């Protein structure tokens, strides 16, 4: 099983997908990416997840994020499954689904957990930044569908904190106040955060989101 950790480079790979042969790094280009796995084709929870992903295309594009899914079944199976997704979820799948029949990529990314199942991937999610660094990893059991609004929230936080010396508090949503990094003195914060800040405690200082319109 892979021992990938946050901050590691996301392994590159070539893969056959529902949209032809793709190199992962070339597909991502200079933007952000989400790679997420599914236990198998024609599974009910995955069908709903891929439907939501397709419907969220504009939301991902707004954030310069490309999405690629993975399943351990083959391309022809994927194509039939996509027809089902489109018809049952009232959408059009508009992103590639990797055909990982030999489980090479699943093992590369540690998507198979033997205690859960020796052959099927769990619901893994990897968010990858433009430098191809893994910024987030989440693993769900096969029985639990993912919350894609939460993934968008995390991307908003990652992109904000990559460009500003802040962190986002619990349950934060884009546009809400953020936390000033403890490494910044209150004197420096006056210049860095022209909108001002509130000192709740010396270590807990809140400021309006820097890039909020």
In terms of topology, how is this protein built?
Layout: E1 14-17, E2 20-23, H1 24-28, E3 32-38, H2 44-55, H3 57-62, E4 65-71, H4 75-89, E5 97-99, H5 104-108, E6 123-128, E7 134-140, H6 148-163, E8 166-167, E9 178-180, H7 186-192, E10 198-201, E11 204-207
Parallel strand pairs: 3-4, 4-5
Antiparallel strand pairs: 1-2, 3-6, 6-7, 8-9, 9-11, 10-11
What this model shows, in words?
The chain has a five-stranded mixed β-sheet. Strands 8-9-11-10 form a four-stranded antiparallel β-sheet, with helices on one face. The mean pLDDT is 92. The chain is an alpha+beta fold. It contains seven helices and eleven strands. It has helices at residues 24-28, 44-55, 57-62, 75-89, 104-108, 148-163, 186-192; strands spanning 14-17, 20-23, 32-38, 65-71, 97-99, 123-128, 134-140, 166-167, 178-180, 198-201, 204-207. Helix 2 (44-55) crosses helix 4. It is 31% helix and 24% strand. Its EC number is 1.11.1.24. Residues 4-160 form the Thioredoxin domain. It holds the Pfam family AhpC-TSA.
């Amino acid at each position: 099983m892979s021992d990938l950790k946050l901050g590691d480079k996301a392994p590159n790979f070539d893969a056959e997908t529902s949209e032809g042969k793709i190199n992962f790094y070339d597909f991502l280009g200079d933007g952000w990416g989400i790679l997420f796995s599914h236990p198998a084709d024609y599974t009910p929870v995955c069908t709903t997840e891929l439907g939501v992903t397709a419907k969220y295309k504009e939301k991902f594009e707004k954030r310069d994020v490309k999405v690629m899914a993975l399943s351990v079944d083959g391309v022809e199976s994927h194509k039939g499954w996509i027809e089902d997704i489109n018809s049952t979820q009232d959408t059009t799948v508009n992103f590639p689904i990797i055909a990982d029949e030999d489980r090479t990529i699943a093992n590369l990314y540690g998507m198979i957990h033997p205690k859960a199942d020796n052959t099927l991937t769990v619901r893994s999610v990897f968010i990858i930044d433009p430098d191809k660094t893994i910024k987030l990893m989440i693993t769900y059991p096969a029985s639990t569908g993912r919350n894609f609004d939460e993934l968008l929230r995390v991307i908003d936080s990652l992109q904000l904190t990559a460009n500003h010396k802040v962190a986002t508090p619990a349950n934060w949503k884009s546009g809400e106040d953020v936390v000033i990094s403890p490494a910044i003195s209150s004197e420096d914060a006056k210049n860095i955060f022209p909108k001002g800040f509130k000192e709740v405690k010396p270590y807990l200082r809140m400021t309006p989101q820097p890039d909020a319109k």
